[in-house]
Fold this sequence. Notes:
The chain is α+β, with helices and mostly antiparallel strands. It contains eight helices and 17 strands. It folds into two domains: about 1-150, Rossmann fold (3-Layer(aba) Sandwich), CATH 3.40.50; about 150-290, Hnrnp arginine n-methyltransferase1 (Distorted Sandwich), CATH 2.70.160. It has helices spanning about 1-10, 15-20, 25-35, 55-60, 75-85, 100-105, 130-140, 160-165; strands spanning about 45-50, 65-70, 95, 115-120, 145-150, 150-160, 170-175, 175, 190, 200, 205-210, 220-225, 230-245, 250, 260-270, 275-285, 290. The strands form four sheets. Strands 6, 9, 10, 11, 13, 14 and 15 form a seven-stranded antiparallel β-sheet that branches. It has a five-stranded parallel β-sheet with strand order 3-2-1-4-5. The termini are far apart.
Amino acid sequence: MHQTNLIDRANYMIPRWHFEMLHDFARNAAIEAAIASSDVGGKIVVEIGTEAGLPALLFAKYGAKRVFTCEVNEQIANVARKIIQKNNFQDRIVVISKSSRQAIVDSDLPSAPDIIFTETLDCGVVGEGYETIARDVRQIAGPGTIVMPDRIQQFGFLCADETAFERNSVFNQCGFDFSMFNTFSEKSYFPVNQMVHDPIRISSLILLKIFDYMNPSTSDVVDHKILICRSGLCHGITSYFDAYFGKFLVTSRGLTSHWAAAFHPLREPMLVESGQYYQLRVDKTGLIELNRPGFDLRITHK
Length: 302
């Protein structure tokens, strides 16, 4: 019984979103279409983030000579190997139970592969180690290496969303002051279920950031001048992303996506006025800051 409980606990450590991702038809179809159209026959592929092995299997299916794929979670890596063997592609796919950083240090990955593929994206893009993975991509990429996705665009709008904000903060309960517990609140962003998330949009939709694995941003922060279209109390930003695999799109938009929306809370809700411009600052972690009119706006175009 004790051993069974240990196994059960280990299984619970695997996030349930892996199953949701594998059932995300639009995401899977876009990735397959991108791989099928990329002339992968005879090519050497490096993948960062094996998960269950679907992209690696697709590269092998469409003719890749060799796929080296990294998975930091050893449990998942072991199961991915079994899935790959069950589908008879073990001769062309090598699963490496390491982070891409460690695999590079240990010389497990080829330099200048034909293709580098990664879909290590959470709802706010950066939470699964985007910056580290981008450095790894640049380290092993050659002049002719194709990186997939070639760019990621993050969009967002200021919103009134008391429900989402309160999920991340606590003040008075049963007559007691619990505000010190907000030390543990998420400062950058957290996922919100798109099926029940119903924010009130109080600004236009704007392009927050563009991510490019091969061309890192020279600034840790991006400033925007954003127009308020509805007066009220602003609690933060709701954001989503579009990842472009060539002409094929994988997106966290909409109710069919397995990704949640991302909610970026302000430190404190702010009253905003329709027709006024505000300064919105977004740092590399997704942390936001909103300032009232009159500040010196330094707009960074990405």
